Amino acid sequence: MGRITTLRPVTRIALGEGARRRADTLxxxxxxxxxxAGVPLAVTMRTPGHDVELAIGFLxxxxxxxxxxxxxxxxxxxxxxxxxxxxxxxxxDTALGPGARPPGADGARRFYTxxxxxxxxxxxxxxxxxxxxxxxxxxxxxxxxxxxxxxPDRLRAEQTAFDKTxxxxxxxxxxxxxxxxxxxxxxxxxxxxxxxxIGWALQAGRLPLRSTVLQVSGRASFELVQKAVMAGIPIxxxxxxxxxxxxxxxxxxxxxxxxxVRGVSMNVYAHARRLxxxxxxRGEAAVREGRAEG
Length: 294
What we know:
By secondary structure, this protein is α/β, with parallel strands linked by helices.
């Protein structure tokens, strides 16, 4: 299988101390072509590892599959130009179950994704507003804001590859009822890390992901919100900012979107009803009591 990290010689310069050659650990970035029954669907730049999960999560996000029975198998095959004789592990051919319908052959759903921006080349914004089979608005989950505030540190503590490279995003899925960390995945692409988490969940028979929180290490893009909604995740928490389109999609789909989760504060951009905070609740109760007395 492919490497997650690699060593590369660098020249390290420390001001006032001169320069010296040393080996530095980098996160590996390689293309992965996802195929369905031999037909190319998408190419994404990713960190090798958990490729089947990545492909499954991508198919969930695009509305192609939504249940473990929709996905039958996947196999790495020879890369372009190899004639199939050499397995580069950069081409993954998937087989869908009898109940799943592959995308149309008009090419509208064949696109290229990068590790930085996710889906590129979509015909329009409407094309990525995929209708979820698991409406987030139906999930009445409520969580303690103090618990949410601790998730970035719990995520960071599990980022083993980031410790070596400093160059990987991460996504972690938490059970909001038990507080358990269910799974964490790292990748050069934030959207790939989320796809791997969702792919793991489908293989484990956990979709829809009711009563869970998705914590991501970077910003919350439109695409990450879409992926969370498609998997039935009710809360998406990010350490950085969301985009305006991400906030709009979260609002219209019923997803609770939280950004800038740092230390003892956070910003809730959509559906704050799912967040409980004892101090806020006490303040609201005092206001209600004061009005009653008046």
